Amino acid sequence: MPGTTIAGSSCPCGTGRSYRDCCRPWHEGQPAPTPESLMRSRYSAFVLRNTDYLIQTWHPTTRPETLDLARSPDWAGLQVISAPGTAPGDKHGQVHFRAVYRTAEGWGYLEEQSDFAQEQGRWFYLTGEPREGVLRPGRNEPCPCGSGRKYKACCL
User: pLDDT, tens digit, for every residue of 135-146?
Assistant: First the structure.
């Protein structure tokens, strides 16, 4: 990842594990073992602006020719809503997730039911139907930034 060093830090994908023990192996070329692990590693790649990884893990039939992350929002957190397990030999998988982000105007989210396909032992992002919305956290709710503090004591 150009210019990014987070090896010992908590992984952006939200597992609570270190980046080194979570998404880094996938970013360095090892195949992600499940659709959920691929989706989490792709979220981390968006956070880290690792365009090469995103393109490499996008299925050739649906990936864009180029990907510009210059106007990508400031990603703040990931919630996996559902990720049905896959059995050995499964060639398709799905993950439903919500990613929270911050812009100059406030908080928003992107929610998507993503489809994945496995080919030659590697999972690829195939397609998804994203929905975006605005988050309006209450003063006493947890802060969307993931600090664990109340919104009024953190980012309000």
Answer: 988 889 988 887
Q: Are 13 and 78 in contact (CB under 8 A)?
A: yes
Using CA atoms, how far residue 140 sits from 55, 91, 149, 150, in Å, is: 40, 44, 9, 5
Residue 78 main-chain phi, psi, to 5 deg: -130, 135
- In the prediction, which pLDDT does 1 show? 40
Q: Letter for the amino acid at 60?
A: P
| Tokens 């605005």 belong to residue | 134
Secondary structure tally for the chain: helices H, strands E: 3, 4
**Measured distance CA(40)–CA(34) in Å, rounded:** 10
C-alpha–C-alpha distance, residues 95 and 117, integer Å: 12
Structure tokens at 28: 């360095």
CA distance 44 to 54: 10
Strands (E), the chain: 74-82, 92-103, 106-119, 122-135
User: Coil, helix or strand for 156?
Assistant: coil
